[in-house]
Amino acid sequence: MRPPSRRSSESSATPSPSAAGRAAQAPRKETGARRRPATASMPERASYAAPAPAPASPGRPAHPARPALGGPPPHAVYRTLLAAFGPQRWWPAATVWEIVAGAILAQGTAWRQVEAALALMKERGLMEPERILEADDDALHAALRPAGYFRRKAERLRLAAAEVERFGSLAGWLDAARRLADDALRRRFLELPGVGPETADDLLLYAAGRAAFVADTYARRIGARLGWFPPDVRYEDARAAMMAAWRASTTEWAELHALLVELGKRHCRARRPDCAVCPLRAGCAHATGRAPAFPAVRRPRGA
Ligand code: SF4
Questions:
Q1: Per the domain annotation, does 173 fall within a domain?
Q2: Which of 54, 181, 216, 217 is 20 to 30 A from 6 in CA distance terms?
């Protein structure tokens, strides 16, 4: 399984996603008094709200397919990229908790830095929710230091671990989560402090195995150039438009996200995209000079 080399573009309380900014980001020396770890003791195990009447089956969005994108059809883009780059097989992780930890650590950080922090967590016996809660600040900060912003990320990891521990175990948390429909589960992820739409979709897709389009910076940039979205499309609008247009399986959504990141790194860079060798050039509005034909994005009232 090839590790992803990606960066989260989520900006909620995170640094700018600019490449230069993050590349230059060196873990700051932080000091802090040791404090008692957060605890999540509850008299009884928690449970999520009653299951929705008709939970969506994993891999298939509940809404019907309808055309909502301009540009080349998403399935054609997917097949072209898959043929060009091969399966990416994201997310490389041994356990669901490792996916959760990786998604939190990836916020505003290059993946190689995340890998270094994950390796330290494993080496020091911190790759379990209960161990995160037991660890003191110094130990946790030292393990997370390679991922940058380690103080903030340590707190987010603790909050996520506390949420898991409310259900007694990772298995208990997963059982409760599986009873929720896709939208309800996404809202649960979004309620976790520091988790924004991109990380919520990473968790929904890779940890929970639900259909989700991760409309990160790469996807929105490529989508705008292809003609899928307007250049200034918002995260939720791009996500909704794509998921309305393509009834993909969970595996296809997972691969599409990885393939778009790969395309963004190899050819469709923010500046001077390398269109001459891009596998999508024939159908790309930017490369061919055709006017993009994206439809108007319909936003709900008050949005
Ligand atoms: S043809 Fe150029 S602009 Fe279009 S997706 Fe490829 S690299 Fe990006």
A1: yes
A2: 181
221: Cβ below 6 Å to ligand 1?
no
Give, using CA atoms, the residue closest to atom 2 of ligand 1. Answer: 275
pTM for the model: 0.75
Q: Which of 269, 274, 281 gets mutated to test ligand 1 (max ligand atoms within 8 A of its CB)?
A: 281
Instruction: Determine which residue's CA is closest to atom 1 belonging to ligand 1.
Output: 281
Q: Is 143 in the pocket of ligand 1 (CB under 6 A)?
A: no
273 lines ligand 1 (CB under 6 A): yes
Of 175, 207, 239, which residue sits at a domain end? 207
Determine if ligand 1 sits within 6 Å of the CB of residue 269. no
Q: How far is the CA of 216 from the centre of ligand 1 (A)?
A: 16
Q: How far apart are CA 103 and CA 119, in angstroms?
A: 15
Among 143, 174, 207, the domain boundary falls at 207
DSSP letter at 205 equals I
Cα–Cα separations (whole angstroms), residue 144 to 7, 13, 17, 28: 16, 17, 19, 11
Q: Report the C-alpha gap between 296 and 68 in whole angstroms.
A: 9
Please give the number of the atom of ligand 1 that sits closest to the Cα of 278: 6
The domain total for the chain is: 2
Residue 280 sits in which domain range?
Answer: 74-89+213-288
According to DSSP, the residues that pair with 7 across neighbouring strands are 110
Segment 60-112, tens digit of pLDDT:
444 444 446 788 999 999 999 999 999 998 887 878 899 999 999 988 888 88
Contact between residue 158 and residue 145 where contact means Cβ atoms under 8 Å apart: no
Name 110's bridge partners. Answer: 7
